[in-house]
Amino acid sequence: MSAEATNPVSAAEDAATDTTVRRRGRARIDLRRLGRAALLGATAGPAPRDRLPDAIGHVAEAHRAHHPEADLTVLRRAYVLAESSHRGQFRKSGEPYITHPLAVTLILAELGAETTTLTASLLHDTVEDTEVTLDQVRREFGDEVAYLVDGVTKVEKIDYGAAAEPETFRKMLVATGNDVRVMSIKLADRLHNMRTLGVMRPEKQARIARVTRDVLIPLAERLGVQALKTELEDLVFAILHPEEYETTRALIAGNPHAPDALGAVAEQVDTVLREAGIGAEVLVRPRHFVSVHRVRLKRGELRGCDFGRLLVLVAEDADCYAVLGELHTCFTPVISEFKDFIAAPKFNLYQSLHTAVAAPDGAVAEVLIRTHRMHKVAEAGVVALGNPHVGQEQPEGAAPPAPEDGERVDPTHPGWLSRLLDWQQSAPDPDTFWTSLRADLAEDDEITVFRADGGAPGTISLPAGASCVDAAYAQHGEAAHSCLGARVNGRLAPLSTVLGDGDTVQLLLAQDPVSGPSPEWLDHARTPAARIAITEWLRAHPESAEPRLPARPDAQAGTRPDPRPATARRSGAELHAEPDGEQPPPAVRPAGCCTPVPPDEITGFRVRGGSVTVHRSGCASADAMRRVGRAPVAVRWGDAAQGRVTLVAESFGRPGLLADLTEAIATAGAAVVSATVEPPSEQRVRHTYTLHLPDAAELPALMRAMRDVPGVYDVSRARHRASPRPRPRRT
User: Fold this and answer.
1) 3-state secondary structure of 486
2) Residues 6 or more apart whose Cβ sits within 8 Å of residue 319
3) Which of 177, 112, 141 is nearest to 388 (CA)?
4) Residue 429 annotated among the catalytic residues of the structure
5) Cβ contacts of residue 203 below 8 Å, gap of 6+?
């Protein structure tokens, strides 16, 4: 059961909300006020049988605006069941609980969801929080509604403990693979909960906001539901970055005449198109808060036109290009801002022409050009596509069309979702699934490569930045363990080669079935499917994760080594292993997978060559060695306090961030041994630092200092090797 109350985003933000284009003559209902609107009549008595209860009058009005012929009888029955089952339950704000499913349903109705989705939305918490059973829902409303309700029902925390949240999302994503309406309901549910999160403790608000940022917002983006995504971004922004949020709000409040500047350009554009005989509707779309924040980081000082964009809506695809031609003829175009997402749609169904023009007074305005149909899909995404099984809602009693090849046709089943469903089956561990899910959703673009062997399917969909390693596992699964190299566009290439959209790839597999991947493959794998498969193989073959060590100089000389305990200084800290009887003490070194530093609890294991690698207690590699029967070796820290550690800083991209981070590191007394910065993804940047610490006991203080840098939201110890070890290159 959700329990939230006050909206953390004030009413002053309403002016910055991106709104969808409503039908002329129909009153606009603000999505942010639907939860309150749902209260009207919520506690009234039972409605007569010939009309809907007053409490869902807003739902009926919004639904009929998109589906004039919809039969609302089933909505009345769903409301009656939901209201009676939730009666006596209250949210933490004191509101009757029925206001929550009503508000969620109203959000979906405004986006154009069909009747089945709205019915399931009204009932989405009944099985989880009341005595209503899934069988009862199935008997009264059919299999489709029952499937949707079950898809968004959380797993029992008593059964899964701390893994309940990851397992709930796993269950939800699997259900989404069969019917994307499951995720539509979940997104609307999270939006209403985020709107009313104020009564929660600050730490719980932050936890929910982080999950929303890392999982729900990327899913909303991939499913094309921009109307939900943009508001979720603003709500998360207000909770996780209150200072930047207040700065942005003050900036918008301090420019009350900004819409007028864009409105003047809109009038000029409207005049140009009218004189050209092009029927178009020119609208001013204010930017939402996060968009204004990003533009400010990109451009510095903002002008009036930077607080919004122009939206030009036309009837036909050809009209979009006619509008573009007129704008580029009558205004000065900013060529670098032109993008054609009509000829090459985004992977989330989005289509539009993007351009920017300079008005005679020098003001530069960004312009979006699309048809009314494109706009509906751009705002509502998969919600606007109706029933994914039959392409459109069927009249009651009508039989669905015959499936093709024994499968139900789902036009909203994109490649990224197929990949996600494939790799999640290989991640039985909830932590691995949760980490991999967040990493997968952080990828914000997609490429298509072609198979050179002519096999089916002829194409492979991968996230942007994927390498030949990812292509190998996408095509061959676990058989890719024996991959030796690849041909990219007809030429031999190493497996580390990053693929581009449209490349042709041929993977070369070894005939030897016992060969396997090297640890360096993890440095080139971007997809969770590849990373999970490689990691599982290395865990099953821990000896393959250790480098071959050169012979020790004293052994080559034929002399007996010094019997005193060996000391390792590879990390800058002393490590000791006790001699084993008459045997000489082994060489000792810290493991690169977990980079232990004093005073970490440690354990050692012998590896090939007789040396001992030292791992942090709880390291996955150490656990794997125990499972295969490796006996631990007693190791201890020496007197030296210095150490070397690898830290990963996650942050939002902004100018000067790298300088501020390195300054914080230097101020804390640490020295940078090496540093890498990954390319930004959705305004997020990952920095990896290998640092030398004069005193390893100062590590917690160093990590706190790095977290205090504006824009940094997490600093953690590296879990895998930051730089590859030298090994023979496979070709």
Assistant:
1) strand
2) 278, 279, 280, 371
3) 177
4) no
5) none
d(CA 221, CA 16) in angstroms, rounded, equals 19
The tokens for 429 are: 């561990």
Q: Would you say 285 and 308 are in contact if contact means Cβ atoms under 8 Å apart? A: yes
The strand pair at 308-314 and 332-333 is best described as unpaired
Q: Is 128 a catalytic residue?
A: yes
pLDDT confidence tier of residue 638, bands split at 50, 70 and 90: low
3-state secondary structure of 288: coil
Among the listed residues 649, 661, 652, the one whose alpha carbon sits nearest the alpha carbon of residue 248: 652
Neighbour count for residue 316 (Cβ, 10 Å): 12
Q: Which residues contact 439 (CB under 8 A, 6 or more apart)?
A: 528
**Sign of the C-alpha dihedral, residues 233, 235, 241, 247?**
positive
Answer for the pair 181, 147: CB distance below 8 angstroms, yes or no: no
First to last CA, the chain: 55
Residues in the chain, total: 731
| Of 694, 583, 603, the residue nearest 640 (C-alpha) | 694
Give the rounded percent of residues in the chain with a pLDDT score beyond 70: 75
CA–CA separation, 419 vs 423, rounded Å? 6
d(CA 189, CA 232): 11
In angstroms, the Cα distances linking 31 to 20, 111, 191 are: 10, 9, 10
Sheet holding 635-637, edge to edge: 566-568, 575-577, 635-637
Cα–Cα distances in angstroms (integers) from residue 336 to residues 341, 357, 405, 446, in the given order: 15, 11, 45, 22
Instruction: State residue 21's pLDDT score.
Output: 36
Of 13, 61, 71, 129, catalytic: 129
Q: What is the pLDDT of residues 203-253, one digit of tens each?
A: 999 999 999 998 899 888 888 889 999 999 999 999 999 999 999 888 888
Q: Which residues pair with 463 in a beta bridge?
A: 446
Q: From residue 23, give the alpha-carbon distance in Å to each of 65, 309, 376.
A: 8, 21, 12
Q: Please give the Cα distance from 276 to 325 (Å, whole number).
A: 11
Q: Could you identify the residue written with the tokens 């596992």?
A: 473
Bond prior to 599 in cis (omega within 30° of 0): yes
Q: What is the pLDDT of residue 500?
A: 87
The whole-angstrom separation of Cα 549 and Cα 547 is 6
Under 8 Å between Cβ of 621 and 591:
yes
Give pLDDT tens digits for 173-195: 888 888 888 999 999 999 999 99
How many helices (DSSP H) and strands (DSSP E) are in the chain?
Answer: 27, 22
Alpha-helix residue ranges (DSSP H) falling in 446-488: 468-476
Please give the structure tokens belonging to residue 38.
Answer: 């749902």
Using 50, 70 and 90 to split pLDDT, how confident is the model at 543? low
- Distance of alpha carbon 298 from alpha carbon 654, whole angstroms: 8
Q: Which of 432, 507, 438, 436 is nearest to 468 (CA)?
A: 507
Q: Is 139 exposed, middle or buried (0-12, 13-18, 19+ CB in 10 A)?
A: exposed
Residue of 284, 360, 355, 279 lying closest to 324 (CA atoms): 355
Mean local confidence (pLDDT), 580-605: 67
The total of other beta-carbon atoms located within 10 Å of residue 131's CB is 8
Task: Determine which one of 61, 128, 536, 682 is catalytic.
Answer: 128
pLDDT for the residue 196: 87
